[in-house]
Amino acid sequence: MAGNVKSSARTSRDANAKSQRGTEESPFIKWLLVSIAMIFTIVFLLLPLVNVFAQAFSKGWSGYLTALSDPDTMSAIKLTLLVAAISVPLNVVFGLAAAWCIAKFNFRGKPLLITLIDLPFSVSPVVAGLMFVVMFGLQGYFGPWLDSRDIKIIFAVPGIVLATVFITFPFVARELIPVMQATGSDQEEAALSLGASGWKTFWYVTLPSVKWGLLYGVILCNARAMGEFGAVSIVSGHITGQTDTMPLRVEKLYQEYNATAAFAVASLLALLALFTLGIKTFLEWKQERDFERAQHALPEPDPIAPSSNP
Amino acid sequence: MKNKLSFRSLFILLMALGLLPGALTAKDVTLLNVSYDPTRELYEDFNKAFAKHWEAKTGEKLSVKQSHGGSGKQARGVIDGLQADVVTLALAYDIDAIAERGKSLPKDWQKRLPNNSSPYTSTIVFLVRKGNPKGIKDWNDLIKPGVSVITPNPKTSGGARWNYLAAYGYELKRTGDAAKARDFLKALFKNVPVLDTGARGATTTFVQRGIGDVLIAWENEAILAIKELGKGEFELVAPSISILAEPPVTVVDRVVKKRGTEVVAKAYLDYLYTEAGQEIAAIHYYRPRLESVAAKHASSFPSIKLLTIDGDFGGWAAAHAAHFSEGAVFDQIYQSGK
């Protein structure tokens, strides 16, 4: 059977090659286009990235480590991790709930809900930050009430978390909605009709079917939560060693003429970006493979293919 | 099995939420000094010196937190609830705004400390590239075509407002005609390719990004750039006339009363006026007020004829209303200049 598949793949590839030949440009044009694309990628993406690391290590490993072990920088790293550790789980819960009700149910106001979920994408982060200042600032709606009870939101950690949650809100939901819509509600209905409780259905049927989409959403959400600058900058107050997140710390170090340290922190953010890209590529590859396996498994169930992957 | 695992990790992550209040309630004796842009290095040194002094005197361990940015932006932050125990801003008007709009301190705050509550002064000078290729000597060289001038945005930066008023004062003194002074500024801002929000941002633009032929800067910022950054890459040019910039300091009453930091906050500012505090200011190229320290460092600072905000512009309230409020001179010349 495997041989069959291979040979059919080969014939289709040959057919592809033949059909392309008719519309193919001359080799010169082809190479010109390819090299333009490559030069663009190298100049605008690769060189700046390499430069970040080159600058970060301009004083060697020890310089790099000294820069990162500065107490104010350490506190910025800790704060960034804390903010991500709070806002990512919150967004997982919000995102799952939102995607679940959008994909599986029909109700009035559904288009409005979908639009609202996308709002943080369309609002400038600066506006998002100012929104929270207007709400919770001392001159804002809840400011005096909060102040009289000594609750700090703006210019403190809760404000940074709020802004980050707002900015990263769409990531999980946006990833999950199409996946959930594609799987439909047949399997859940089957589970329910067989007597599973609502929670059981969710944990054993819904969640496994969207787990890769969920993981992808979480990774993107985390990358943005750690990298957000605009909204966080407005609500942070920029107190060194207290309300500086990593991106804010990069700006501050750069303005304090400490380029090596600035790029050392920036290199951590760049590593996060590379890690995110790696996971994203892996997940896409894995999804494609699972999909292919599932397709092959359709006509004649393959006993080797893991049954947990629908 | 897999699902249970993911459920558990989700649960653990959610527990992180429960840790949040714990992380927030950890407290020690702290002061927050909300300051303007170029004072980063000054207060880094001063805070260490004061913490040592305070511990020797009272036995209390003190850590002073800093926040820096454009003076106007920082004042806005304090008005919106940034818990500053003390503010050390670029000009009195920004603290007036905290008194008026934030109702956080009395309106006569400037009388509470000596010398208009300004423990150090500075002035506005030019920073040019090595060899002064555009031959910039005085304010009138800045309006020549082809000269690119870097100055921050007067709407957000205190330093930029001093820059602006120094230029205005120069032309007003020369011609005695307010309309001509206005045209002069219009021509000057036509030569400004980018307005940064704070003085440090403008310095970074000029020094590190290499944009512009001349930076209008705080004297302390210009000397810092010459001494610490590109040795031999920049030169200071003292114009024939400039302005006496008095960056004031004060305690934010509303915050210190609530946090119980009145005594230490006041001592912090008083220490700026002592010989030790003045010496630190002088080392960071701020002009000290104390005669003995000023005499010692006299050679560091060029002698320039200085206008004063009260003597030549009728005080900050009048200057702000005439030049920087919504629709005033700066808005008119900057919009029509574009």
Can you tell me about this structure?
The complex is a heterodimer of chains A (310) and B (338). With 310 residues, chain A is mainly α. Chain A is built from 13 helices and no strands. Chain A folds into 2 domains: 33 residues; 230 residues, MetI-like (MetI-like fold, Orthogonal Bundle), CATH 1.10.3720. The two termini of chain A are 21 Å apart. Chain B is globular and about 60 Å long. By secondary structure, chain B is of the alpha/beta class. Chain B is 50% helix and 13% strand. Chain B has 2 domains: 149 residues, Periplasmic binding protein-like II (D-Maltodextrin-Binding Protein, domain 2), CATH 3.40.190.10; 150 residues, Periplasmic binding protein-like II (D-Maltodextrin-Binding Protein, domain 2), CATH 3.40.190. Chain B has a 4-stranded mixed β-sheet. A 4-stranded mixed β-sheet of chain B has the order 6-7-5-8. Classes of the chains: A mainly alpha (310), B alpha/beta (338). Chains A and B meet through α4, α8, α10 and α12 of A and α1, β2 and α7 of B.
Topology, element by element:
The complex is a heterodimer of chains A (310) and B (338).
Chain A lengths: L1 H22 L3 H30 L3 H10 L1 H34 L5 H13 L2 H12 L6 H6 L8 H27 L2 H8 L4 H30 L2 H7 L9 H10 L3 H39 L13
Helix pairs in contact in A: 2-13, 3-13, 4-8, 4-10, 5-8, 6-8, 6-11, 8-10, 8-11, 9-10, 10-13, 12-13
Chain B lengths: L1 H24 L4 E6 L4 H19 L4 E6 L2 H9 L6 E3 L3 H9 L19 E2 L2 E6 L19 E2 L7 H18 L2 H13 L8 H9 L6 E5 H11 L4 E4 L3 E3 L5 E3 L1 H7 L2 H12 L1 H9 L3 E2 L2 H6 L8 E3 L1 H5 L1 H10 L4 H9 L1
Parallel strand pairs in B: 1-2, 1-3, 6-7, 9-12
Antiparallel strand pairs in B: 3-10, 4-11, 5-7, 5-8
Helix pairs in contact in B: 2-11, 3-4, 5-6, 6-15, 7-8
Class derived from helix and strand content of chain B? alpha/beta
Order of helices and strands of chain A: HHHHHHHHHHHHH
Order of helical and strand elements of chain B: HEHEHEHEEEHHHEHEEEHHHEHEHHH
Structural class of chain A: mainly alpha
Shape of chain A: globular
Please mark out the parts of chain A with pLDDT under 50 across 5 or more consecutive residues, or reply none: 1-12
**CATH A-level architecture of the largest domain in chain A:** Orthogonal Bundle
Helical amount among residues of chain B, as a percent range? 40-55%
Number of domains of chain A: 2
Q: Care to count the β-strands of chain A?
A: 0
What is the first-to-last residue Cα distance of chain B? 66 Å
Averaged pLDDT of chain B: 88
Give a count of the beta strands of chain B, DSSP E runs of length 2 or more.
Answer: 12
Indicate the proportion of strand residues of chain B.
5-15%
Low-confidence stretches of chain B: 1-5, 17-27
